[in-house]
Every structure is written in structure tokens, then in C-alpha cells.
Fold these 3 entries.
Entry 1:
Amino acid sequence: MQHCLYLLGAILLAVYAAKLLVDGGVAISHRLGIPQFIIGAVVIGFGSSMPELAVNVKAATAGETGLALGNLLGSNLFNLCFTLALVALITPLAVGRDSRVKDLPMHFIAALMVAVCGNQLYLDHINYHQIMLSHGIILLSFFGIYLYYTALEVADNSPHKKLLHQSHHKLVEQEHVFSVSKACALMTLGLIGLVIGGELIVEQALIIANNVGMSEHNIGLLIVGPGTSVPELVACLIAAHKRNTDMIIGNILGSNLFNIFFTLAVTAIIAPVPLDLALNKVVLMYLLVSLLLIPIVWCSKEKKIGRPAALLLLCSYGLYLWIAVNS
């Protein structure tokens, strides 16, 4: 119980440190004259995924890559099958045309790349499963592509993410009052907090895994991944309460894409990420859910994720939990 409380405290520290880093980064960006749309798309848009990055960098440098991949898969499936479903139960989510054409297919491509890159044994007849340095470079290339068109969307004020971008711009406008010294102090504290938080999360997760006999990747799938996804859950519930449902799809898909195209890429560059049979089942589950979302949205008359689809996603999350626990 004691280590569970330590783990919870470490996750809260990492989440709060990410906010400090974003606040300081926004202020510094203003002082340097960086355009608002770049700040909104990059600094704030991906800020909530910083805890996952901190955990993975620490896990990779410590050689605990099972925890690292479990963290990402657990976070993405929590975002997709729990957060998205919970919000859709509260209010149906309309999905704009650009999201249907760009974001959902890109999200499926990200899941497909994890499945393909991590299954050399089946596809290339090589006697191992792992995501390697070359895969990390490819994933980073896709991150650059996604970042490019995201920045263009913000600059053009694209309708399907208008509310999300407006929200980012409000945050940008609120934070520019910081002095350079205060902004640097916030960024420094944020980075220190992320480093310490990431280290404590990995340390406590491994202690819990040893104490209860769970594998590293299960700790990542069931505890660390969902825990580091709390910022996305809170942001989406607030947006649903305010009826700003256009923000929700952008938040969730943007966070998931950052996790795969950037965080997993950085992890693989630091150390190869093995994909054992148990994690492979979860990757397949993630791939199927990502694929399932596309026809759900396109076949809906109003192009919405409604309550029936939300229940299906929640059932998928229950199946995922069963797979993770019994692997």
C-alpha cells in the first residue's frame, strides 16, 4: 500500500511538472517571438504527454523497456477506450471531416507501424521481436509529418480543431505576462520535476511488480499508463461539461500520436524495445480498436461517436484488461 501511494504521488508530480514546463515554455516562446500557432500546436498541444515521455526515457535508460512499452500502450488504450467512451456516453461526439480524413487514418497508421515494426519474427523471419533504432527514426519522420500539418491547421484555423486551437491560444495569451527569469525558473522546475517524477514512477512500479508478482509490462499497462493519462481524462471531461466536444477528439488523438511517433521513437533510439507475446496481444487489440473507429465514424449518419459506439469501446477496454491480467 505504501508503494502504491508513492507511485500515485510520483504520477501527480510528473503531471504537475509537465504543466510548469508548458507554462514556462509558452512564456519563453512569446519572448522569442515564436508565432502563436506554433506554440499552440507544439508546446501546449503535446504538453499533456510529457509524463509518458519522462517515464519512458527513464525506463529505457534503466533497461526496463517492457515497462516503457506497456506505459505507452496502456496510456493510448485508456485514452481511446475509456476516456473517449466515457465522454461519448455523456454527450455524442461529432467528428469533423478533416479529423475523419486525416487524424483517424493517421492514428491507425501509428498503431499499424507498432505492429509491423515489432513483429520481425513473423514478417521477416528474424528470430526476435523488437522495435529498434531504425524504427525509431522512421517513427520520428512520421512525427515530423504530423507536426507539419498540425501546425498548418492551427495557422489556417481549421474548423475541425477550431475550439482546440482557440483554447490553446487562450493559454498562450494568459502566460506571456511571465518575465524571462520566472519562465526559466518554471521550465527548470518542470524539467527537474519530470526527471524526478519519471524516476520515482519507474522505481515504485518495479517495486510493486516484484512485491505482487506482476510483470513489468503489466504494471505499465494497468497502472502507469492509465495514471499518466489523467491530464487527458480531466481535460476531456471539462470540455464535455462545457460542450466543447470538438476539442476532445483532437486532444485524444494528438496525445496518442505523440506517444507513438515521438515517445516510442525516442525510447527505441535509446534502447531496443522487445515485443513479447503478451504485449503483442495488446498491440493487436490497439490496432483493431484504431481500425474499428474509422468505420464507426464514417458509417454514422451524423458522423458521430454515439452511445452504442461508446459502449463498444468500453467493452473493448474490458477485453483489453482481461488480456493484460491473464497474459
Entry 2:
Amino acid sequence: MHTLHTGFGRAGVASLVVRVLAAVAMLPCGSVLQAGEHGDHEHGTGANGGLILPLGRENYHIEPVFESGGVLRLYLLGADETRVQETERQTLKAFVKLAGGRETVAIEIAAEPQEGDAEGMTSRFKGVIPESLRESQVDVMIPNLRIEGQRFRVGFSSVIPEHHDDGAMPAPLAEDASAALFLTPGGRYTEADIEANGRVTAKQKFMGFMAKHDMHPKRGDLICPITETKANPACTWVVGGQVYQFCCPPCVEEFVRQAKESPDQIKEPKAYVKQ
């Protein structure tokens, strides 16, 4: 069983964990590969805030991410989880139901190509969870996802995780909101910071980044300003001319938002240390 961390709802709301129900690849010859046949191991958190789900014999991976407004995005990755995987554009049919329930609602998850995807190809899909189910734990089943001539059946469910005390991993932002956040100055977040960070969003800068959330930092360890988990020196962002370390890209989003909206709450980088 694999676990996927993601967000569902407004930023600051406790994130969800997506638990894999099934992932089966049907090869052209009709043979079946079960997910995890080559050993069960935990996958890291992707650049978009979701843990990564292997497909088949881990020839491919998928990162489901629940965003605000009930948006569900699926990111395709290769055998190397840091590489984007393209497939032919297609519209996926998915079935959503209350966790443990029986009555399903069919939704469409359409191709939403990312910048750099080839003509007629996509590495991302987007759907919307029905409004009546957005505040509930849900199961999602996609019966047919085609990647390079193989057919995959993917299922996962969203459940509220047992997290550390304040426990709230922020929900990832939609792309337009993310661009507006990172590419406009405000509060303690300056034009010089935007330039220092490469004039990109956190999702763009950390594409392929896999977070390993250490819930038990040791005394003296730098901690993420948002979750207070152990900070990752590979996940940094410049705010107010100073370099801060975080656990994952969605926390960068939340911190920049705070720096713009509530600048007085932002401390010096050295203040974010496990006591």
C-alpha cells in the first residue's frame, strides 16, 4: 500500500492523504503487472505537493494533487520520478464516491498540457470534484489511462492524515494563482526577491522535487516555517533578501503569501530552528 500526501481545500486547511486502492497496467499482450511487484517502497512528495504513485512495475508514476475549489490534477512522471512523462492527449473518465460508500458520480478529467509538452501530447490532466463531495473523504477510480500503448487502472482515496500537532500542510495553489503570488511583489516580498528566485514559481523551480517529510527534527535542526518539520536545504526561497529553507514547494507558497499579507509575522531565517 502506498500513500500520497496532497491538499484539498483552502490553503492552511489540513492536507489530505491519498491512499492507493489499485494500480494495474495492461500490456498489449494482455499480461497484467501489479503495482509494487518489485518491492514496496515509500515514494517521496512531488513538486506539486502530492506523494508519488507507481504504475505497473514502476515504469511510470503519477502524482495526484487536490487543489482549492475541488480541482484535481494528475501529473504523469516516468520511471525516474524526477522526469516528466508525456502521453497522447485523452479525456479520462473517473468515478468519485464518498469513502466507503457505493453511489458513484462520473466526472471527466481532461488533458491539460504543461509548457513544453509536444503537440498532441500531455503530461497533466485536470478534473473537478463535485461540489457536494468536496468537504468529504472520497474514493476516486480511473478505469482507463493510456500511456505508450499500455492501459492503467488507478484508484486512490482521500483521508485526513494523522499529522503533527498543528498538522496543516497547505493546499497547493492553482497555476494562475501561483504565478500571481510569486511574480508580483508585496509586503516583505520584493522585486529583488523575484529576480533572486529566477522569476519563476515554486512549482516551476522545484519540478521533480521529492520531499521527505521528517516529522521529528532534532534540537538545533532548521525547520520549515510552515509545518515545523525538518527543513530541506534543497528547497529554499529568498524573501526579504534572506534565504529560507522549507520542506516542500506548497510551504514556499504559503510562506510567500504570509510575507505579502502579514509581513510582521515573518521571522529571521535563524529563528526557524528546533528548540
Entry 3:
Amino acid sequence: MPVLVRPENMERITTPALAERFIEEQIADIRAYVGDKKVLLALSGGVDSSVVAALLIRAIGRQLVCVHVNHGLLRKGEPEQVIRVFRGEMDANLIYVDAVDRFLDKLKGVSDPEKKRRIIGGEFIEVFAEEARKLEGIGFLAQGTIWPDILESDAGIKAHHNAGGLPEDLKFSLVEPVRILFKDEVRVVGKALGLPDGMVYRQPFPGPGLGVRCLGAITRDRLEAVRESDAILREEFDKNGLAGKVWQYFTIIPDVRSVGVKDGKRSDEWPVIIRAVNTRDAMTATVEDVPFALLSHITDRITHEVKGVNRVLYDLTPKPTGTIEWE
């Protein structure tokens, strides 16, 4: 049985050598624990699930079955990156589920943020459970639980985001190979496992994805505008040395239109809101002082390259009084 509690004297994993030692120990534990059974993993493409996938692939190869559900709310290029890295480069046993229409149809006309979250979370479980029932020989469910999840759950700060949810007929034993690690350690292990920097240093991303950045009732055209504007922002931050400096940055589009002028004609289109913040614990956050010239360049690109957008705003609100996300 893998270690479930972080040893009090455990050395912080900060170097490739320490990461390799951890990986070797986990591989031995996983092989002894799993045997010849298959392990199922919901692979989102986030840091934790990606590191767990890479570690299990090294330990048990194609005994791991990864399920990647594309619900249409991921950032530009993320589903393709998951397929390229895990199926193409790591030879993972990967099931890709295109559930875009299914999710967006369920979300049609729903404007309440909490209701959107419940629909997205509930539908994800349904899709994942349907795929699990098609498989044979699954004995274990792998999860990307990390040590802060355990600490916050025990302290009553928040519910354990990986626990439970699956129907009664799909109760598997858990495999949580990074549960005793802190987030920074997970990243060091991910680098040692050969994952690309784009995955290892991926920004925090809400579970409902772009569903809570397309404010109010989600429409497909506004969702695409969020995705495209976010891609431009990330590209420009990368090129200008802000990607590793700013903790989180993204775009939001509210369900309102503003009057503007395009090609000499009146345009009634959406505004894009840019959010860029720094924080240590996500309990408080400060706004990044982005150079005005760069903001002007990003504004020019977004208003000319993203269909349906005629205005760009920069959110200057720290936390508190604002939260990091808008919904």
C-alpha cells in the first residue's frame, strides 16, 4: 500500500536527484499495489493529473487507461497538447472523448455561476462513468490529489476536490501517487518525468474552465472569443517575459455589448476584460503592473483578431475586494 501520510522529516523535493528518488520509490510501490490490474485516470491536462499519468505510465505502461474529456471549455490547444504528449510521445492508453456539444447543450441559457458549475461537474462525472463502464479489468482509480488538498480537507477549509462522485457500481480502490507532495514538488517531479514546460508550469485553471470566464449564459460565439483572446494574452505574456513572473492571467467576456466603430461603421460587440494577478496563497492577490505599451499592443491584437470584440479593459481590482475569478 503506498504511503498515505507525508513523513514529518521528509526532505522537500527541490532537485532532479530528489525527484528521481521519489519516482523510483513510487514505481516500486505502484507495481506492488496494482499488480496486473488496470488503473483508470481522468486526465484533464492540468499539472497534477498530467504528472500522475506520466508517473503511472513509467510504472505500469498501458495498464493505465487515461480518459480525456473535451467539454469545450478548455483553453486553445489544450486537448491537442494532451493527445500529442500522452498518446503521441508517451504511448499512453488514452481515450479521447469529444463531449463539446453535450456540455454546451446542457449549459444553454444557464446564467447562474453555481448552476453552471454543478452542470459541468455533474456532466463530467456522467461522461467519465460511461467510459469506465465500457472497460474491463479496472481495479483502481488514479487521482491527482496533493498534500494541500489533504490539509485543507482535514481543516474544513474546503471539500476534497478529488473525493467521491462516481456511481456506486464504480467504486475502485484509489491510487494517489503524489498525495504527499506540495505543488512545487509536483512540478519538479513532472520535469524529471519529461513533461513539457507548458504542462509542468501550467497556470491555475478553474475546474469549470472557460465556463466561468464566459460570464452569464454561455454562447458558442462568445466562448470562442474568450478562448481566442486568452490565447493572444498568453502568447504576448510569453514573448514579453511575463509568463514566469505573473501568477495568473486570463481574459473574461461579460454578457454585455458596447458600442464601437469598425471600418467606419457602428459596431455593437463585446468587451474583453484582462485579469493579471500575483499571489502566494490565493487568499489575497495584487494586480500586475503590466507596461502600458504592452497593454496597448494586446488591445490592438484582440480588437482586430478576435471576432465580435471591439473593446478591451484591464481589471485593476486586488483581492480583496475582488476575487481572482469573476464567477
